[in-house]
């Protein structure tokens, strides 16, 4: 069994900036985005399909990675998923626990998840990688792959494109965050390199609700392949045996 990963100096530095910014905006962020899904039928359809694939008595728990104030966690729970949330920001976790006291929320980082190999039946990363430099994504995707059970799914929402935007003010507060748009082909290639099978992709163009600088929104549904019996032990039969 692989031990949980340890955060690197690079990821710790990136996490510190993101944590501080989201601690600052946690309460306002929850209020502003509380009902956002109500006007997002395509996103609700993706989450409903994901829920159908990961729920069931034989499935492991589903982690909402970078859950923020818990709105996606709660939405999945309403769809019958055994979901809980993990977030880097203590402020966000506190708001999530207050807003959804019947659900579980924990502090943590996607770069070093405190889970055993194959522990999770599914994971959602709903725009929670957008503040990570693209060079950090391979390690994050590999870590998510590690904690998913064979056959488990990952649903990823991200900013689709190729640019970086710095935010020094958002949600009514001063902060310091970089937002990264990553080309869909690059995202899919990194997920495949981490061991995932890409099952479905979607790009949604911006609408009036996104704002003038939102850009395209990307979505990928992936699956961790089922283990091949004997492959890890090197016991597959040789050709001609």
Question: How is this structure best summarized?
Answer:
The chain is an alpha/beta fold and 241 residues long. 32% of the residues lie in helices and 27% in strands.
Question: In angstroms, what is the radius of gyration?
Answer: 18 Å
Portion in beta strands: 25-35%
Spatial shape: globular
The helix/strand series, from N terminus to C terminus, equals HHEHEHEEHEEEHEE
Distance from N terminus to C terminus (CA atoms, Å) equals 30 Å
Fold and architecture overview:
The chain is α/β, with parallel strands linked by helices. The protein contains six helices and nine strands. The strands form two sheets. Strands 3-2-1-4-5-9-8 form a seven-stranded mixed sheet, with helices on both faces. Strands 6-7 form a two-stranded antiparallel ribbon. Helix 1 runs parallel beside helix 4 (90-99). The model is unreliable at 231-241 (pLDDT under 50).
Task: Give the key terms.
globular; single chain; alpha/beta; 241 residues
């Amino acid at each position: 069994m692989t031990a949980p990963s340890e955060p690197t100096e690079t990821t710790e530095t990136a996490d510190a900036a993101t944590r501080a910014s989201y601690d600052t905006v946690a309460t306002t962020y929850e209020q502003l985005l509380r009902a956002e899904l109500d006007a997002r039928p395509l996103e609700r359809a993706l989450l409903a399909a994901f829920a159908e694939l990961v729920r069931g008595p034989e499935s492991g728990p589903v982690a909402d990675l970078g859950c923020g104030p818990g709105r996606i966690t709660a939405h999945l729970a309403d769809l019958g998923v055994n979901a809980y949330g993990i977030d880097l920001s203590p402020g966000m976790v506190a708001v999530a626990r207050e807003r959804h006291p019947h659900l579980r929320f924990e502090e943590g980082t996607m770069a070093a998840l405190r889970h055993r190999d194959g522990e999770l039946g599914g994971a959602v990363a709903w725009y929670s990688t957008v503040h990570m430099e693209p060079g950090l994504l391979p390690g994050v995707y590999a870590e998510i792959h590690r904690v998913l059970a064979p056959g488990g799914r990952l649903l990823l929402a991200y900013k689709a494109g190729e640019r970086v935007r710095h935010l020094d003010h958002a949600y009514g507060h001063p902060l310091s965050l970089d937002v990264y748009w990553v080309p869909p082909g690059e995202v899919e290639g990194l997920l495949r390199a981490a061991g995932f099978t890409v099952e479905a992709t979607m790009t949604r163009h911006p609408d009036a609700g996104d704002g003038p600088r939102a850009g395209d929104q990307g979505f990928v549904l992936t699956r961790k392949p089922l283990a091949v019996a004997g492959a890890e032990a090197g016991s597959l039969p040789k050709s001609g045996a």
